[in-house]
Structures are given as C-alpha cells and as structure tokens.
Amino acid sequence: MQQRVAAFDEMMNEVRLTDQVGDVTHANPRAHYKAFAAWLAQQPDHVLNARREEAELIFRRVGITFAVYGDNDGTERTIPFDIVPRVFPASEWALLEKGLIQRVRALNMFLHDVYHDQNILKAGIVPAEQVLNNAQFRPEMKGVQVPLDIYAHIAGIDLVRANYGDSSGQFFVLEDNLRVPSGVSYMLENRKMMMRLFPELFSQHRVAPVAHYPDLLLEALRNATPAHTSMPNVVVLTPGMYNSAYFEHAFLAQQMGVELVEGKDLFVDDDVLYMRTTQGSRRVDVIYRRVDDDFLDPESFKADSTLGASGLLRAYRAGNVAICNAIGTGVADDKSIYPYVPDMIKFYLSEEPLIANVPTYLCRKASELDHVLKNMAQLVVKEVHGAGGYGMLVGPASTQAEIEDFKLRVKANPSNYIAQPTLALSTCPTFVESGIAPRHVDLRPFVLSGNHVRMVPGGLTRVALKEGSLVVNSSQGGGTKDTWILEE
C-alpha cells in the first residue's frame, strides 16, 4: 500500500486564480527554476534516456559502485543517477548554511562537554542515562584532549523539506551523521557527470562549484594536527575493498593526494602510530578514519578486529595522532539523542535553532510509547542505532500484519525506538521510465570543522525512485541527483 500525501514541489509553484468559472490552479516554475524548466520542456525523452544510459555506463566503467550486503544478484551496483538536478537559489542556501553551521558547532560543544565536565547532564537538559548508558558513549574518551576541541570534523546532516502544520516547504533536520558520514564522492561525481552530459546548462546557469571540497577536507584534517608537527602526514583508513563505501575512500584519498591505508598497514610503537611503506616506516599524524569505533583498536575494543591498529587509542590519548572523526562521536548522532539537539543549541550558544527537528516521540517514555503503539499506522518508527533505511517501519506504507509485528518489537525493547510523523517529503522532477515525474527527495550537505566551520555550496540529493516511496537510501533502491546552488 503506497502513501498518498500532499508534498511541496521543488520546481513548480501552484497559484490559485479566480476567473469567470471559479478558482483555477496553475502550476508555474519557481523563479530559480524558470530557465531550467524551459530547457527541460524542449528535451525529447529519447535524448534524456540516452544521456542516462551514458551516465550509468561511465559510472560503472570508472568503478563508482557500492556494495549491497546479502544481495543475491551480486555485491556491486551503481547508484542510479538522475539527470534532473535539484536547484536552490543562493538566498535560500545561505539560510540553510547558517543553520547547519550553528547545529554542528553545538554538537561539537556537546561532545566535548560529555567527555569532560558534563555540564549539560548536570543541568538536566539531556538525561544523563541517555548519554552514559548509550552504546556509542566511549568512557575511554573521558578527559582526552582533542585538537581545537573538535570531535566531528566531517558531519553529514540529513535535511528534508515538507509541508507540515501551518508551514509550507519548511526544512527539518532528519538526522545527524557524525561517525563516518558517506556520500560526498557521489556529490562530486554527479556534478562532473552533469557537466559532461549537459555542458550547455552550465553556460546558461551560474552554478556554484563544489569541486574544491577535497581541498577544504584536507585543510580541516590538517587543522587537527597534533602539536608535535607542522607538516602532518594524513592518511585515509579504510576497512578494505569489500566495504560498501570503498570507492569513496579511495576517491577522497586520491583527490587529497594522501595515502589510503588499511589496518594491516599500521602499527604503534612507543605510543606513536606508523605506517609501513616500501621505504620503511613513516609516522602518521592524522587519520581520516572510515572504520567504526569498535574496530579501530583490538587492544581497547573488539579484540578480534583486523581493521585497525593495536595500541591506537594509547597513541591517541597521548596526543601523538589525531583521529577524524574522533572516537565516541556516535553518542551525538544517536537517534535517542537527536531530540535534544535544539536544547543543546540553546544551552551552548544561547541561540534559537535556525533549522527545526522533526517532532519525535521517545518510546522509552511510557506516555509516548502508548501514543506510538496506538498510532503506528500513521508514524515512521526507527531503531535508535538503525541506518541505511533498515530497522524502520513507514506506517502508511505498511500492511496491518507488518504493523502488528513491529509493535511486538517495540514493546519488547521500547528504548531502542523513536517515532516521528510521516512527513510528505518534497518532490523533485525525476526522469523515470514513464518520463518526467515527481519523486520524493532529501538532502545531505557536508559540514567541515577545523579552524573554521565551512561548507561547499551543495550536497547529496537522494531520491526515492519508486512512485510514492519515502525511502531514499541507495540500499533500498534510491538514487542521487546533482544539487545546484545558483549564484546571484
């Protein structure tokens, strides 16, 4: 059963006019979409289809794929790329950028606080048990001094736009990704592909560039350099070629001009981290890690892990190496902590949040659990540690049997779930088999924290390619689009 709800249209603006026969609704392109809409209307379907096939061929040839675990048809596939971009005016993007920087600043302050003085817990703003008993809280990080007090050097903040309550087209933060956020390589490759397929569009539109992201990323990583050196050796730590985001790990290392390493390439001696090279060992100063906490150091976490380096935590605590993002950042992007981020902004910055959260029910609270169980058919219910579109239920798109089964799961472990209203995510024109049609989208901009908090003007727009679907994750059949910020 598919959900049928009204949604904000990114490209078209409905205008209600009154004439001799009554009210008539006209759909006109929004101001920032007018030139593109005129171009799109002139494009035959067979031309767009040929361009889409060309993009898929190039992506596969270059190796822009991701792994799907448990997929019987094979482990590697390309993420479907849609050739219709999502467009923002510069003024709207400026407001989003300001709100995202505000949020990431507060999240970094929260992380420093919970691993040091814990003032926000003492003030009762965030329940102490939600933090200290959280699976992502790392007691090993208590008292550890990290450069610039920054824990989340790279943050991917998921935004959705929706008609909700009395507001039309309002942006909400859906979730914060602070551990090993992925997807930025697709943002960069999508732009390169659009410029290759449709160069005329970039002569007609002043699209802000995103190609300098690797430079900003390397600068943020170097800003985390420990005090012992001014010429840091930066590496990207990957779990290996079978990881779903391996393409991105290799891509970013290549773009930054740094080494891509695996755990077997690293060792710790006298609390200093080294990498093995053909010229002998070389000291490592900064790790951009794409390995989860549990697997970073078999001496301190999972003893059977081969993905990290034994003694890495000792080297980290001694201040001899920086890890980006820091160990323990996951406690701030846990879905059970998410509802308190607006309070963090007020507590640390004495500011009102510029981008709102989605209203959220915490199933660990008896009164809110009761509401969720009674209204599950209208809600989205998620595991607090879930990701990738797994471990969740979209009530309006589920059968009664699926809802009843999910109720049993929630009752068995209420603290493991949150619930939110089913927002009608905004739609963007998308080229599908039937032609141009609206499909639901979200947006993941990337926020970099170093000496300054910075962003490139753009992000990863993900699109649910199935009609009516609200699940945009690539592992669930979603695709991606280029995201344009039009310079004024």
UniProtKB/TrEMBL annotation:
<dbReference type="InterPro" id="IPR025841">
    <property type="entry name" value="CP_ATPgrasp_2"/>
</dbReference>
<dbReference type="InterPro" id="IPR051680">
    <property type="entry name" value="ATP-dep_Glu-Cys_Ligase-2"/>
</dbReference>
<feature type="domain" description="Circularly permuted ATP-grasp type 2">
    <location>
        <begin position="85"/>
        <end position="464"/>
    </location>
</feature>
<dbReference type="Pfam" id="PF14403">
    <property type="entry name" value="CP_ATPgrasp_2"/>
</dbReference>
<protein>
    <submittedName>
        <fullName>Putative circularly permuted ATP-grasp superfamily protein</fullName>
    </submittedName>
</protein>
<dbReference type="InterPro" id="IPR016450">
    <property type="entry name" value="UCP005522"/>
</dbReference>
